[in-house]
Design a protein that fits this description.
Number of domains: 1
Radius of gyration: 16 Å
CATH topology: Pnp Oxidase, Chain A
CATH class: Mainly Beta
CATH superfamily: Electron Transport, Fmn-binding Protein, Chain A
Order of helices and strands: HEEEEHEHEEEE
Distance between the termini: 27 Å
Largest sheet: 7 strands, antiparallel
Number of strands: 9
Length: 158
């Protein structure tokens, strides 16, 4: 069977994912990045996996602190995509004009529907991304808004 990359991309694009804002603290500073590859990985202990594209500014801070906060985006996602979609350098204020609360894991964005405080268990490099496996050691839910669900037309690029 010969690999047809366009068919592989279309098939991978049908795998649904949610979107979250990964926030992280390091040396008294904080930043955030939009992530779309988040998945529950274990019941006991409760764990998730998250992928970050290699070279993302937040990655060295996750590596150094060994923790992060996932702020789960609700179905009313337009404001979060506008804010975080362009990305931030480490010198930028990633949370300007947002209401946040500090946590030991990273800023908690109050408009998000759920929050997961995570401790990194393992990091694995896979192609152009790094996969972080993390134990969820803290969590909260805000209201009953459904999560945003994302499908790609092509699973080979953003």
């Amino acid at each position: 069977m010969r690999a047809d990359l366009s068919q592989i991309g279309a098939a991978i694009g049908r795998i649904p994912s949610g979107c979250s804002i990964l926030t992280v603290n390091h040396d008294g500073r904080s930043t955030g990045v939009l992530v779309s590859w988040v998945q529950q990985a274990s019941f006991d202990p409760p764990a998730v996996t998250v992928c970050l594209k290699q070279g993302r500014p937040a990655a060295p801070w996750v590596d150094a602190s060994r923790r992060f906060l996932l702020n789960v985006i609700g179905s009313n996602s337009a404001a979060m995509f506008r804010h975080f979609g362009r990305g931030f350098s480490l010198e930028d204020d990633a949370f300007a004009e947002l209401t946040v609360q500090p946590t030991e894991f990273g800023p908690r964005i109050t408009s998000c529907i759920a929050h997961l405080g995570c401790q990194v268990l393992q990091k694995v490099s896979i192609g152009d991304h790094d996969l972080y496996a993390a134990e969820v050691v803290w969590g909260s839910v805000t209201g009953d808004t459904p999560p945003y669900t994302h499908l790609r037309k092509n699973g080979l690029s953003y």
